[in-house]
Write a structure and sequence with these properties.
The complex is a heterodimer. Chain A is α+β, with helices and mostly antiparallel strands. Helices cover about 55% and strands about 15% of the residues of chain A. In chain A, the strands form 3 sheets. In chain A, strands 1, 2, 3, 4, 5, 8, 9, 10 and 11 form a 9-stranded antiparallel beta sheet that branches. Chain A has a 4-stranded antiparallel beta sheet with strand order 12-13-14-15, with helices on one face. In chain A, strands 6-7 form a two-stranded antiparallel ribbon. In chain A, a hairpin with a 4-residue loop joins strand 12 and strand 13. The longest helix of chain A has about 35 residues. By secondary structure, chain B is an all-alpha fold. Helix content of chain B is about 75%, strand content about 0%. Chain B has 15 helices and no strands. Chain B starts with a helix and ends in a 5-residue tail after the last helix. The chains are: A alpha+beta, B mainly alpha.
Amino acid sequence: MNRSPYVILKWVLIVLGAGGLLALAVKLALAGFWPWVVGIAFVAMCVLVVYGPRRGVPMKYLFPGLLFMIALQVFPIVLTVATSFTNYGDGHQVSKQESIDTLIAQSVQEVPGSPRYALSVAVREGTDPATGEPYYLLTDPTTKQSYVGDAKGLNPLPEAGLTKSDTGKITAASGYTILNARQVNARADLKTFAVPTPDGGGIKAVGLSEAFVGKPTLTYDAATDTITDTSNGNQYVARNATWVSASGSGASLPVGWRENVGFANYTNALTDPTLRTGFFKILIWNLVFSAFTVIGTFLLGFLLALLFNDERVKLKGLWRSLLILPYALPIFVTAIVWRSMFNQDYGIINSFVPGHIDWLGDPTAAKVAILMTNLWLGFPYMFVVCTGALQAIPGDIKEAARIDGASGWRVIRSITMPLLLVAVGPLLLASFAFNFNNFTLIFFMTKGGPFEGNQTSIGSTDLLITYAYRLAIEGTTPNFGYAAAISVFIFIIVAALSLQGFRKAAALEEVA
Amino acid sequence: MATQTQDVVVAPDAAHDVPPGVRPPRTWGAVLRYAGIAVALVYALFPVVFIVSSAINPGGTLTTTSLIPSGASMVNFNDLFALRPYWGWYKNSLIICGVATIASVFIGSLAAFAFSRQRFRGRRPGLLTLLLVQMFPALLTFVALFTIFNALGDVIPQLGFNTSAGLILAYLGGAMGANVWLLKGYFDTVPREIDEAAVVDGASHARIFFTMHLRLVAPILVTVGMVAFVGFYNEFLLASIFLRDVDSQTLAVGLYALNEADKSKYFGPFCAGAILASIPVVLIYLVGQKYLISGLAAGSVK
């Protein structure tokens, strides 16, 4: 057959693809990420099944897109929804068992007189010294025997491939990259890192090149589910995913755990007095912002389209290109420039406007500033689509109306507008949905602020999405669970509006 | 065009909303129209003038800027290049947007071809699911993406944070959804007879797709590609979460951080960088206006 070279090419590509995935799986297996290995193996199998045989042509075309969509869009969505039912956040990031292990390992105190190991901090060869999992390469001062310790425990290290200094400190080891002093100091995670020892103690670093074996001061009793501090006798019990002092007074332990909280994040947003007020305040502003933006930009764009849509206007192409500029310039340029122009002391807007207005510091003024900016950013889009739609309206309909004695205004209101709305209606909805989540503009202009009173989480110009962002990323105490719940709310609102919109759009088309 | 020929018959002076022979209103109308156009242009352009003026203003701070610069110099540009790895950002932006655009247009057109040309079980539900998944803005999954790429970076540092490849990968999650409907509509306009003739001549489906369809739908590929490129170029949220190391950043993240470092002192360098950063997208808008406008009219919002 004449297409055999392509068949060979196909198999070369399949082998390359599967081989690449295999290499990836080996790497993941070495690092111990078994769920990932299973996932990759599954993908590799899919590649063979989809592209190997001649059958199932549609899947051959859908597979790449589906793969990315499932891995990087659907899976994150599922993960987000799952997170929204947990208390995942600051102090609640690990499982209960891990929180116990961490607390105990952190409480390790040096037992006076116990030996100190010579220490080198390393990561596996090929991983990033700044973020890779740390390994402690240790040498016992008396036996000269070397060990490697990680978060799971201590294992002997074969002498072959090791280079040591006079003090026994390992200076090179095959398979590991040894961190220098600057790299060790840059890693904050090493301050609490401890290699657990079988007797319940741990090995912690002192300085850069020594480590001690110590005993923990905390003990966990599984029968009563309590943690006891042996140094002062304090007891801690598990409550609300945190270890709280049993006596009711005194601080809780710093590490809690992640657990399922059911609909608590959702009900809190709707019932907790502080959260509810904030949530609805943001939601209303969010709707006002999107609605005003769509209506404002549309009216201005439509007006300009009418103005320019006349054969007597000279150099139309040039004017149009210039009018598109606000939309063409990158948003990170225009939004920041507008913010600078609204600067209270030095901005050029206050040099034209009387009253020395604190544009970005006053709740109402900040809203006005944002709406004005977004009007400027968005009108060219509406101008472009209205121009297109106006040119598509047949001239003879307008002509007929005029012959029937309709005034110019009447023609616009009764002929042009309805026909135009049919064409641009779906675009208005798309614009609404887009602006509903216009994170970039708000973030660049005000970051959601200004914040009134001592309120630090709910800003006057916050959209739901900037609110969720602050909850998850920016705050000092991130609350991923609650942020995820807000994300789900946004999805429900946008989906409901869009569905409504599709019905409206369908109805409009029937009119046409 | 039909209107114009009619106008010639009805009114030789070609002003169809003005009765023939009534001259003064037409002049006033024209004056008003030009006045309106002038106001519109001033409104649209004064911030642009402000950027240019600030960029060449030798003072270089927000305090000293005005609409008319006090002089012209390259001081701000030189300051910018000395302050930050600006050309590195430029390179990162172009690579990330270029690769992500090409990959997502290719993936999108593969899927659109299947949805347009082949009949299979789950075709309609599949298209509707795409629409639904799209309504969950990719933006909202940033916490999950953060967790995924944090873990991925530990195993494969080349795909973790501070890498262009990792960010491109994250962007490709949306490759399927964003454009498939638009692309499918265009694929539908390619006559089926062409496929049938090719099949009779013994061409495989891959041959039909790569050598025939991809060429026939080239205009929509350009449109979708331009919109995608501009979208990636402007993307800030994911880029700011992924690219924390200053050398790995894009123009959006880097310039924002520069302005944030000192809003007044670095305003001149910021504007200098902003002008240079605007060149690629403004060029796209000016050169590809025809393609882009058809894309905008079909529902792509920046």
